[in-house]
Amino acid sequence: MDIRDELNRGVLLFDGSMGTYYASLYPDGERVESANRQHPGRVRAIHTAYLEAGARALKTNTFSPFDVEGETLAQTLEAGYTLACEAAKPYGAAVFADLGPSAQSIEDCLRAADCFLSLGAENFLFETFSDFAALDRVASYIKSKRPSAFVLTSFASNPDGVTRHGLSAAALLRQADACAEIDAAGFNCMSGPSHLLRLTESLQTLPRLLSVMPNAGYPAIVRGRTVYEGTPGYFAERMAALTAAGAKILGGCCGTTPEFIRETRKALDTQRPAPKSVIASVQSRITLTARKEGRNRLAEKLDAGQRIAAVELDPPVDADVSGFLTGARRLVEAGADTITIADCPIARPRVDSCMLAAKLRRELGIDPIPHMTCRDRNVNATRALLLGLSIEEVHNVLVVTGDPVPSAERDEVKSVFSFHSAILADYIRKLGSENAVVPFRVFGALNVNAANFDAELKKALRKRDAGVCGFLTQPVMSGQAFENLQRAHEEMPEMKLLGGVIPVVSERNALFMNNEVSGIEVPANIVRRYHGLGREAAEALAVELSVGFARRMEPFTAGWYFMTPFQRVGLIERILHALRG
After folding, report:
1. Which tops the pLDDT comparison, 525 or 276?
2. Which CB contacts under 8 angstroms, 24+ apart, belong to 167-174?
3. Is the model's pLDDT at 277 over the cut of 50?
4. DSSP per-residue letters across 68-81
C-alpha cells in the first residue's frame, strides 16, 4: 500500500496496542518483543485480529527492541518486521517500522533505522517521545537512504498538553511539522481520546498531517494490574470527532483492543460530513488573548540598570512565620529589594517557599524570589504551583535541581525528579508564551567555586538558552571565584548576575562551610582572621569583609545576593546600611 495514496482517499486507521493486549492474553510477564521469536504465532494472530477489525496500518512489535535477552537488535527487529508484513500482505495493509523512546543514544536509533531499511521498510513510526531531540536527525538519515520513505513522529502528552520532560506537546508538534523530512506528526499515549481531542482543538495551527492515537481511557489498578476503563463505543465516538477536528491518521495506544478498532472503523465508515461551523473552527483557530501582566518591580529595577540587593531567608520549620515576616520587613526597610526563600534546603521539610512568597507579596508588597527545586514535584504538581504563583502575582522564581533526600531517610522518603533545572526553566518559559501563566522572570544558580568551571559555565549557557534571565551565585570570596565571576560576566553579558555574599560569623563557621557545605570556599587567610575572636568582633569583621566583597564584585554584577547566616537579620541590616549609606 502507498501511504500517501491512502491518505488522499481519507483517514488512515492504525491498529491498537500490541503490548497491553498481548499482556492481557498472556500474563506471563515476558517482554512482548521477545514473543516475536519465542511465540511468533501469538504476535501474528494479534496483528490479524486488528486487521480483521478494520485497521489499514500495522505497527511492528518493536516498540522497545534494545537489550532483549538472548537476541541481537537485528534479530528482534527482523522477526517483528517479518511477522507484521506476513500478516498485512493478504489485507493489502501498510506496515510501519515502530520504535519507542527506549534508545540510549542517537546511534541506537540510527542502528535500528539501518536494520529496518535493510529489511525493505518504507514507513517509519517514532512514537511516545517526550522531546524532539534526535528525531530530525533520524528522519533526515532515513530520507537520505530512502527518499520515498514516510516518517511519522508522535509525542506522549498528559491531559494538560505537557510531556514527561515538561515540554509543551503543541510546541513539539510545531517543531516536527517544520522538519521537511518528517511527513506526519501527532500525539499518542498518556491520555485518553477526550483529552487528546481537547488538545487537538486547542492547536492554533494544524500540522500537514495530524496523527492521534489515544489510550483506551484513564488507567486504573485492579487486583494489582493496570486496566483501562474506557469502552469501545465511547472511544470510537471521540475518534470520529477527532477527524472533524483535523486528524488524518488515527489509531490506538495502551488498552485499545481489536474491539476498539472495530468500533472506530464503523464510526468512520458511517460518519457524516462535519458541520461547516466545525470545519471553520479547524481552518481558523482561535488566537488566545494575552493575559495582562502584573507589575514586577524587581524586574523593572533590573531592566533599568539599578543595582539590587536580594537577601535569602530560610523558611521556618513550623507554622509560626511571625519571626520570618518580621525579619523580612526589617530587611526591606534596610534596603533589600527582594527576599529569596529556599525550598526545603538540604531536603529537610520547611514551610513551602512559594506559599511564603505569596504571603510576602500580599503583606509587604515586595516581589520575592521563591526557590523552586526539581525535587519532590512531578509535572502536574509543578504546573499547579506555577498557576498559583501567577494568580498571587509572584512573577520571579529561582530554579535549582535541589539537594537529594538524606540517605538515612530514603527508605521512607523518596525523591522525585521529573526535571533538571534547565528543563524546568524552559517549561516555565513555555507556560508563559502559551498564556497559561503570566510570564515569569526565571533565575538560575551559578557555582563560581566549582572545581571545573568550564563545565559549570556550559550548564549556565544551557540554562540561559532555556529562558533563565539571570544567576544568583554561590558566595564569592576567593581570588578564583572572582576570576570566574568576571569570566561569567564577559561570556554572558546579557545575564543579570547577583554576586553571592555570605557573612562568616566565626572561625568554626568558616571551617564548617569549607568541610561540610558544597559550593562554598572560605580562603585560609580569611579563616585565620577569625581565630580567637568573640562574637562582637567576629560580626564586625563579617561586616567589613562582606562589604569589601560586595564592592569588589560591582563591575561584574547587577546586584548582590546576601545569605543570612543563622537568621542573623541584624548582621545583614548592618551590611545593607554600609552599602546603601
Report:
1. 525
2. 167/130, 167/131, 167/423, 167/426, 167/427, 167/430, 168/430, 168/434, 169/199, 170/199, 170/202, 170/203, 170/434, 171/430, 171/434, 172/129, 172/131, 172/132, 173/203, 173/207, 174/205, 174/207
3. no
4. -TT--HHHHHHHHH
CB 508 within 8 A of CB 486: no
User: Which cell numbers in the block locate residue 388?
Assistant: 498559583
In single-letter form, the type of residue at position 216 comes to: A
| High-pLDDT (> 70) share of the chain, % | 91
CA distance 280 to 2: 30
Q: Does residue 89 contact residue 56 with C-beta atoms inside 8 Å?
A: no
> 32-36, 100-104, 287-291: which has the minimum mean pLDDT?
287-291
Q: How confident is the model at residue 415 (pLDDT cuts 50, 70, 90)?
A: low
| Domain topology for 306-580 | TIM Barrel (3.20.20)
- In this structure, CATH architecture of domain 3-283: Alpha-Beta Barrel (3.20)
**Average pLDDT of the residues of the chain:** 89
Alpha helices in 344-445 (DSSP H): 353-364, 379-391, 421-433
Beta strands in 35-194 (DSSP E): 57-59, 94-99, 123-129, 150-155, 184-188
Percent of the chain with pLDDT over 90: 74
pTM: 0.67
State pLDDT tens for residues 323-376.
999 999 999 999 999 999 998 776 578 899 999 999 999 999 999 999 998 877
Nearest alpha carbon to residue 575 among 536, 538, 547: 547
For residue 45, what is the enclosing H or E element? Answer: helix 40-53
- Output the pLDDT for position 218: 67
10 Å CB burial of residue 344 (0-12, 13-18, 19+) is: buried
Spatial separation of the C-alpha atoms in residues 449 and 433, rounded to whole Å: 34
If you count DSSP H runs as helices and E runs as strands, how many of each does the chain have, helices first?
23, 18
Residues of the chain with CATH 3.20.20.330: 3-283
Is-contact 16 256, C-beta < 8 A?
yes
CATH 3.20.20.220 region(s) of the chain? 306-580
Residue 97 Cα distances to 57, 116, 117, angstroms:
11, 7, 9
Q: How far apart are CA 230 and CA 572, in angstroms?
A: 60
